[in-house]
Amino acid sequence: MRCKPVLFRSQLLPSPVTDGQGVHLCIDLTDPASQTLKVSVSWIPEHRQQRWQLPVWTPGSYTVRDPSQHLHSLALTQAGEQRSVRRVSPSKWIADVEPYSPVQLTYQLEARQLTVRTNWLDPQFASLCLSAVAMLVEGQRWSPHTLELVLPTGWQGHVPLPKRDDFYFSSDFDQLVDSPVHAGGFEAIPFVVAGCDHSLVLIGTPPMGWPKTLVEDIEAVCNAAVALMAGPPPAGDCYQLVIQLLDRGYGGLEHDHAQVLQFAWPALAKPGGYHQLLQLVGHEYLHQWNVRRLRPKDYVPYDHGAAVVSDCLWFAEGITSYFDLCLTLLAGRSDRQTLLQDLGNDLSHVLLNPGRSVQSLADSSREAWVRLYKATPAGAQTQISYYKLGTALAFCLDVQLRAVDASLGHVLRDLWRQFGVTGRGYGRSDIQQAISHYSPSLAAMLPTWLDDVDSLPIADCVEALGLMLTPIKADSGWTGLTLTETSSGVEIKQVQSNSPGHRARLIPGDEVVGVRGVRITSLEQWPLLLKGEEQLAILFARRGRLEETQLIREPNATQSMTLEWNPHASAQAKALRDRWFEIL
After folding, report:
1. Residue 499 in contact with residue 481, Cβ under 8 Å?
2. Are residues 165 and 46 in the same domain?
3. Same domain? 178 vs 196
4. For the chain, which end, N or C, has fewer CB atoms within 10 Å of the first or last residue's CB respectively?
5. What is the CATH number of the domain that holds 101?
6. Could you tell me if 288 and 238 are in contact, meaning their C-beta atoms sit under 8 angstroms apart?
7. Residue 416 has what DSSP assignment?
8. CA 520 to CA 490: how far, in whole Å?
9. Which residue in 31, 30, 214, 182 sits closest to 114, CA to CA?
10. The domain containing residue 355 runs over which residues?
């Protein structure tokens, strides 16, 4: 892979630390069956006291994960002698050293968590998130860093960094830990976006095989993001797209020069599954602009050692989530009806979520560190995702901007030119100012939409486009219960507030033993036992004791909503709808 100059970062190739420059990180993967990384970090200290730390979180995933819990056997040596190391916090250490004499820090990390933000190693492949591997050495954050991978025979390394001989090079610590590492017996597949060379790394193959148009479709979706942003991809010729195909799981993580996706092959085989994968590709690719380079000022630069609260995560993720629904249409890989279906699902989620009346969008952003990524079944009643609610706000902004011959795309591009290209962070007032350029009255409404619960004019915006939200009623009556199947039977996972299940005094964790006098042993039996009279006799176990209650289902309860064409839409609404479908 050839790399053109990278936006905001020097691409001068430093020498390894043996030449007296920067920090050298070496990761030994030669015992993959142990699922343990052997790590060494080398540098030349300049002071008698040296500190270092392991980051506590990964940018793009806003919660403290403390990867140091997987670390052991840490030791520091200098001139062949081991130095005494003191741990001063769960993720920070300190040692007394001789200045200007090389030191080597060694440690081992268990790599047994296969997510996009953790580390995994097995005899088939490795997937590493370097913010959960590399130590930040005090005084060396903005120094050059080199990376060396020691691999099993037959393995190849895939890292979105320039390489010379056996070393990968980064201009500083932030660029290093922003570069995911994958290794195994797989090859990289080249593809091109807006004239820039990219690479696709596929880890795993679905039983039915990958679609023949996979690379072509990915190119189209990425080019749609380029069209939206009206400029070439910031990563230039150095971008890596990694898809890990698993039997279960879903997720993605963005990087300056990469994205790492996890997708389940059974989901890929379902109707709409491939479309969902392309949306995920578009979402993480658009993050190249929005989030990675255009990001809240609270994260410029990142604080790797602590949680940092921001009320702008709704813009980082909600705006991106809104446009990922649109990119496949812009790419010619879906149609208008599919966009309405996808957007309708998100609006339905917001409108039927009780949390929207408890938690504002700004609070959802601020509380991400302690709520969204650490959600509990009970918490679903009092919180709402800034992804989903942010998508709804983005929709409302876009519709109302269309009415004044602008669009949300205009606002995003303006913010990119002002704050993304320059590397400056933005705040709420900057977003308001960008909107105010097109509609001062709309900008004035933004604080209300962000700070007040249940304040979005979703119904008005739907109507303005000549569309309508149609409720879908539950077939068997509403209980307000969400169940899950366990090894011992069927258990209540969630009870919605002010629902029949709530009034029946059922709580999460109760085991449902019988319904209507019939033993229940699997989740598939539940809808069958719901049929019949509205009143149900439920036998349940709580803390090992059997109890009985009466639950009265609510008929005609809305279980979801669909976004549909309004056959009575005015000519004005149809014209606005056509402009909205243009996306750009």
Report:
1. yes
2. yes
3. no
4. C
5. 2.60.40.3650
6. no
7. I
8. 7
9. 182
10. 297-464
CA distances from 214 to 142, 184, 221, 273, 292 (A): 39, 21, 11, 13, 25
Q: Which residues pair with 198 in a beta bridge?
A: 191, 239
pLDDT per residue, tens digit, the chain (584 aa), is: 344 433 323 333 344 554 567 999 999 999 999 999 999 999 999 999 999 999 999 999 999 999 999 999 999 999 999 999 999 999 999 999 999 999 999 999 999 999 999 999 999 999 999 999 999 999 999 999 999 999 999 999 999 999 999 999 999 999 999 999 999 999 999 999 999 999 999 999 999 999 999 999 999 999 999 999 999 999 999 999 999 999 999 999 999 999 999 999 999 999 999 999 999 999 999 999 999 999 999 999 999 999 999 999 999 999 999 999 999 999 999 999 999 999 999 999 999 999 999 999 999 999 999 988 887 777 778 999 999 999 999 999 999 999 999 999 999 999 999 999 999 999 999 999 999 999 999 999 999 999 999 999 999 999 999 999 999 988 778 899 999 999 889 999 999 888 999 999 999 999 999 999 999 999 999 999 988 889 999 999 999 999 999 999 998 888 899 999 999 999 999 999 999 999 99
What CATH number did the domain enclosing 255 receive?
3.30.2010
Do the Cβ atoms of 95 and 50 come closer than 8 Å? yes
Is the domain of 303 the same as that of 386?
yes
Strand, helix or coil at 28? strand
Tokens for 133? 């591997």
Q: Are residues 231 and 252 in the same domain?
A: yes
Q: Both 143 and 83 in a single domain?
A: yes
Residue 188, amino acid: A
The answer to whether position 134 is within a domain reads: yes
Of the residues 439, 464, 489, the one at which a domain ends: 464
Domains identified in the chain, total number: 4
Beta strand 36-43 pairing with 103-110: antiparallel
94 phi/psi in degrees, rounded to 5: -145, 150
The one-letter amino acid code at 208 reads M
CATH for 438: 1.10.390.10
Which of 252, 250, 256 lies closest to 242, judged by CA? 252
Is residue 491 within 8 Å of 510, Cβ to Cβ? yes
- The CA-CA-CA angle for residues 502, 504, 508, to 5°, reads 50
493 shares its domain with 541: yes
- Do 76 and 121 reside in the same domain of the chain? yes
Residues 6+ away with beta carbon under 8 Å from 473: 556, 557, 558, 559
In angstroms, the CA 4 to CA 567 distance is 52
Residue 84 DSSP symbol:
P
User: Is residue 423 within 8 Å of 301, Cβ to Cβ?
Assistant: no
* DSSP H or E run through 481: strand 481-485
Pairing type for strands 239-246 and 196-203 reads parallel
CA distance 486 to 415: 48
Check whether residue 29 and residue 166 sit in a common domain: yes
Contact 257, 240 (CB under 8 A): yes
- Asked if the structure places residue 151 within a domain, the reply is yes
Closest CA to 535 of 520, 554, 521: 554
Entry pTM: 0.93
Q: 3-state class of 174 per DSSP?
A: helix
